């Protein structure tokens, strides 16, 4: 288990919402509490709603909710289930990865720049026509195979050099 924690860069931490210690991977600004993550998600959905020029009163019925219940999500008072997130994606027209990125960008890369680049690449790929996606997928698979082959060859060369020493 210790090897897994190290491999995944997990750090034991205490979160005010959980009685027992939990293991988390630090983000770019350290370990965010679950409450802070909820606030980021709330800010994202509020902005997504506003970007569509909808009021809470207009959006709530589309979700089958009262304005007060929906407002709890935007105030990070209520936690959102994945099914509700999917429904919001359908209604407001965003991809789930966009909301998750807003809450935990460190999951997309080792640095903020890498994370932003990964997210932008994913957004660009999503917007491509299907035929182009298929061609791009074939190209990326070839690139990955070549990269792995090069890595394997480099490792073999290193082993050979170490054997001669």
Structure report:
- The protein has helices spanning 2-7, 34-51, 56-62, 67-74, 82-92, 96-103, 112-126, 130-164; strands spanning 11-13, 22-24.
- The model has no long low-confidence stretch (mean pLDDT 93).
- It is flat, with a radius of gyration of 21 Å.
- Helix content is 65%, strand content 4%.
- With 165 residues, it is mainly alpha-helical.
- It contains 8 helices and 2 strands; from the N terminus they run αββααααααα.
- A two-stranded antiparallel ribbon has the order 1-2.
- Helix 2 (34-51) crosses helix 6.
Q: How do the helices and strands follow one another from N- to C-terminus? A: HEEHHHHHHH
The residue ranges in which pLDDT falls below 50 over 5 or more consecutive positions are none
* Class based on secondary structure composition and strand pairing: mainly alpha
Mean pLDDT across residues: 93
Question: Level of helix content?
Answer: 55-70%
Shape: flat
In brief, what are we looking at here?
Helices cover 65% and strands 4% of the residues. The protein has helices spanning 2-7, 34-51, 56-62, 67-74, 82-92, 96-103, 112-126, 130-164; strands spanning 11-13, 22-24.
Structural descriptors:
single chain; mainly alpha; two-stranded antiparallel sheet; 8 helices
What is the topological layout?
Elements: H1 2-7, E1 11-13, E2 22-24, H2 34-51, H3 56-62, H4 67-74, H5 82-92, H6 96-103, H7 112-126, H8 130-164
Antiparallel strand pairs: 1-2
Helix pairs in contact: 2-6, 3-4
């Amino acid at each position: 288990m210790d090897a897994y924690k190290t491999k995944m860069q997990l750090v034991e931490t205490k979160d005010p919402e959980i009685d027992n210690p939990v293991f988390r991977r630090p983000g770019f600004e350290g370990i965010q509490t679950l409450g802070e993550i909820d606030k980021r998600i709330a800010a994202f959905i509020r902005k997504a709603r506003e970007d569509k020029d909808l009021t809470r009163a207009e959006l709530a019925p589309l979700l089958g909710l009262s304005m007060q219940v929906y407002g709890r999500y935007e105030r990070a008072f209520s936690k959102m289930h994945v099914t509700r997130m999917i429904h919001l994606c359908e209604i407001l027209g965003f991809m789930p990865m966009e909301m998750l990125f807003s809450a935990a960008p460190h999951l997309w890369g080792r640095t903020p720049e890498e994370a932003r680049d990964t997210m932008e690449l994913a957004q660009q790929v999503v917007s491509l026509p299907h035929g182009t996606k298929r061609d791009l997928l074939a190209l990326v698979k070839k690139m990955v195979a070549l990269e792995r082959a090069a890595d394997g060859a480099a490792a073999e060369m290193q082993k050979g050099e170490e054997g001669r020493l």
